[in-house]
């Protein structure tokens, strides 16, 4: 079977912003579509997301966020190379690198390359008569990932109602995925109604989390912990924080806007150490800025052994940055976002390299998502052990949770328990 037609076009993400889709028509007449996500709290070292200048009339309606040029690159530069090609994902990803050998897909755009790479993977799965998850892992029990789920949102996703980006929960003691999700839904429901009872009006943030206002991170942690406790889940559900600190780091200072406090890097290391030793926090993401390597290593050297120190903006799913992090002992876990990288095969390579070096991996969605559920399949078959999709609210999020529930119901599975030490 081979590629008869490959078409790129613009669609909308969950924020109502343009993103790239690709539909492949195979020689058996079947169609295979993939859509790519898009971040808002993006790291400087991510692969390039190509967006238009907003100068033409058509572009101006999307205020400079349209992706017509990425789509044009797919249709004029990528499609002619792939027509008639057999469905070998690694070979096709190699061809995409030939089309644009610049690091980070600067010329044709990582949104163009990833949409193509994903559509090829889906088409290849079909050609081998398999689902995407079984294309990557043909045999054996599937390892369903532990969810890390957003309850409170702040930072760039919720109008900075809270300095840090997310307070999330990890149902680390759940015995299966369905049970894990039921605990999360209960916590979110309680948090939403308790927020209202306290007279706090909330917005639903970009990732579906609650945009409640709290003066300090401690207050936010205590609020979520009280919901966990009320449900009798203390000790079974831990907190995870995404500090997303690059967003408030400037002139070698961490400046919090809601509390008005300003910290030197050394002081901020102490502040974060204080936080993770005060509350039952299992994972902390981007506690320091994307190029403040010294603070990462200093923190990792004195952090509690059970703590997951997770690099998102620090690593941007980039092999070289991960290698540096391993060498400098900056962290012990990496967030895996395929669109930070631009190709499925090289994203997979980063994840494998992390595992080979005893780094944990968390496969992650973006704040701008689509109803596409490929993320659940790759997180499972690549044996990531953890997944982060935002909250349990919004169809672009539930598409992934529902796919995992489907896998648990229909396939031979086991549930990952990456936080056994807790
Ligand atoms: P983003 O945020 O998708 O807006 O970049 C998600 C995260 O920081 O984990
Ligand atoms: Zn992050």
UniProtKB/TrEMBL annotation:
PANTHER family cross-referenced by the UniProt entry: ENOLASE
Active site: 207, 337
Family in the record: Belongs to the enolase family.
Catalytically driven reaction(s): (2R)-2-phosphoglycerate = phosphoenolpyruvate + H2O
Descriptive protein name: Enolase
Pathway where it operates: Carbohydrate degradation; glycolysis; pyruvate from D-glyceraldehyde 3-phosphate: step 4/5
Keyword Lyase: yes
Top EC group: lyase
Gene Ontology BP term (one): glycolytic process
Residues annotated to bind (2R)-2-phosphoglycerate: 165, 337, 366-367, 388
Organism: Candidatus Planktophila lacus
Binding site for Mg(2+): 242, 285, 312
Cofactor: how bound: Binds a second Mg(2+) ion via substrate during catalysis.
Domain Enolase C-terminal TIM barrel: 141-417
Enzyme Commission number, as recorded: 4.2.1.11
Compartment annotation: Cytoplasm; Secreted; Cell surface
């Amino acid at each position: 079977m081979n590629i008869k037609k490959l078409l790129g076009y613009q669609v909308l993400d969950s924020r109502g912003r343009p993103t790239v889709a690709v539909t492949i028509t195979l020689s058996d007449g079947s169609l295979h579509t993939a859509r790519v996500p898009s971040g808002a709290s993006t790291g400087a070292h991510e692969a390039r997301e190509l967006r238009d200048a907003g100068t033409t009339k058509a572009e101006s309606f999307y205020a400079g966020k349209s992706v017509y040029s990425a789509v044009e690159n797919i249709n004029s530069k990528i499609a002619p190379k792939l027509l008639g090609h057999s469905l070998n994902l690694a070979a096709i990803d190699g061809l995409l690198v030939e089309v644009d050998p610049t690091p980070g897909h600067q010329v044709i755009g990582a949104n163009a390359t990833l949409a193509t790479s994903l559509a090829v993977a889906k088409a290849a799965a079909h050609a081998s008569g398999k689902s995407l998850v079984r294309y990557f892992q043909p045999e054996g029990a599937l390892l369903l990932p532990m969810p890390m789920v957003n309850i409170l949102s702040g930072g760039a996703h919720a109008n900075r109602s809270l300095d840090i980006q997310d307070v999330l929960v990890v149902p680390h003691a759940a015995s299966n995925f369905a049970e894990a999700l039921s605990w999360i839904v209960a916590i979110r429901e309680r948090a939403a109604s308790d927020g209202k009872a306290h007279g706090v009006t909330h917005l639903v943030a970009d990732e579906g989390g609650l945009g409640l206002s709290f003066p300090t991170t401690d207050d936010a942690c205590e609020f979520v912990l009280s919901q966990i406790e009320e449900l009798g889940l203390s000790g079974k559900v831990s907190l995870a924080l995404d500090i997303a600190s690059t967003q408030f780091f400037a002139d070698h200072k961490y400046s919090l806007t809601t509390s008005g406090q300003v910290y030197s890097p050394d002081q901020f290391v102490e502040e974060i150490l204080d936080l993770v030793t005060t509350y039952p926090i299992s994972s902390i993401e981007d506690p320091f800025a994307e190029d403040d390597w010294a603070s990462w290593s200093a923190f990792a050297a004195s952090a509690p052994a059970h703590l997951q120190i997770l690099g998102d903006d620090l690593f941007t799913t980039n092999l070289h940055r991960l290698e540096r992090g391993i060498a400098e002992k900056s962290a012990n876990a990496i967030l895996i976002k395929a669109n930070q990288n631009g190709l499925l095969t090289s994203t997979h390579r980063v994840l494998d390299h992390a595992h080979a070096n005893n780094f944990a991996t968390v496969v992650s969605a973006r704040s701008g998502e689509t109803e596409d559920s490929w993320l659940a399949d790759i997180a499972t078959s690549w044996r990531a052990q953890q997944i982060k999709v935002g909250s349990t609210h919004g169809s672009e999020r539930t598409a992934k949770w529902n796919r995992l529930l489907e896998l648990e119901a229909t396939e031979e599975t086991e549930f990952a328990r990456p936080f056994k030490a807790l």
